[in-house]
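Sample intake sheet
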Amino acid sequence: MQHFKTYTCLFFICLIPVMLRSQDTVEYPDSYHHYGIKHYNGTVFAHTDAVQNTAGSRPWAIELEHSKRHTSSKAWNTCRCYPSTGVLLAYKNYDYDVLGHGVHLAYYVQYHALADKRISPIIRGTAGLEYNTNPYHEIHNPENQSYSMHVNASLQVALGAYFKINDNLFSDVVFAFNHISNGGSKAPNKGINWPSAGIGLYYSPDYGNVKNRSDSIPMQTFTNKWITRINAYLTAKSKTYDLKEIYMIGGAEMLAGRRISNLNNLLGGFEWNLNGLHIRSIEYYDLGGNPNILSVFAGHEFVMGKFRFSQKLGWYVFNQMDDEHLWYHKWGLRYKHNTNILIGFEVKAHKHVADYTSFTLGYAFY
C-alpha cells in the first residue's frame, strides 16, 4: 500500500508539467482565424501625361478576407510580433468608364507592433492578380493608356492601426497605396496608382488572450550572417500593342549580403541581362552594337518567414542599347524552400514606368 501511494504521488508529480503545457496551449494557441470585410475609398494619381484623362477619378473597393493571426513562440521569435497572413477577394470600381472595374485575388502579410495591446500599429503588404474589364483597344477603348490586358498584377502597401473591440470583434483603419500593371508585358501599360483610406471589421470565432513574450522568450539573432546567392530570370515582352512581335528577356545575378536582424538583409551584386528586342533591333537596323547589358546593384530584403520581399537600385556599367536610362529599380517577392531554392517574381522599372515582370529562380548558399 505504501508503494502504491508513493507511485501515485510520483505519477501526479510527473503529470503536472503536462497539465501546465495543456493549459498553456488552451490559453495561448499558436494561431487564430479572422474573417473580415473592408471598404476603401481613394483617388487616382495621374503620374504621367498619358494618363491625365484619369485624374479626378475616385475609385473604391470592397474586400472579403480570411486571415490567420500567428501567436506562437516561433512567430514571436521571427519578428518580435504576432503577424497575420491571409487571402482576400476584392471588387474595385475605378469610377471611370475608360478604366472599368476589377476583381482582385491576393495574398497578404501584416505585422502588428505592440502585439498584446488593445491598439496596435500595423504594416501590410499585398500581392495578387486582378481581372480588369476594360483594357486598351485601338477602336473600342483607345483612351485607356493605363492597362492593355485583362489580367494584371496588383500590389498594395498599407500603414494603419488595429483595434481590439472584444475577444471576437476587431477593426482597423489603414492608409494604402495601390498599383496595378502588367509589368511591361504589353503596351500601353502606364498602370493605375491610387492612394486610399480603408476601414475594416473582423470576426474571430476562437480568439483569446495573446501572450506577452517580451521577457519569457529571448530574441534569436541572425546578425552578421553572410548571404551568397545566384538568381536567374526569364520573361517575354511585346513591343507592339497587338502582340504580333514577342521577345524573350533573360538574365542572371550574383549577389552577396549580410543579415543584420531577424527581419532585414542588406544585398549587393552584379547582373547580366539579354533582351531579345535589342538583338532584333541590331539585326534589323544593322547597328553593330552589343546587346549584352551589365549592371551593379545594392538593395534591401525583408525576411518574412519563408518569404523574401526585396528592393534593389541598380546602375548600368555596360549598356550600348539605352542612352536614356542610367539606373533602374526592382521590386521582388520570393519564396524560399527548405532546399535553399527560391522562386518568385520581380518587377523592373525605370523611374515610374515598369519595364517588365519576370519569373525568378535562385539558389542560396547559406
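Comment: Residues 154 and 280 are 31 Å apart (CA to CA). The chain has two domains: 30-203, 225-364.
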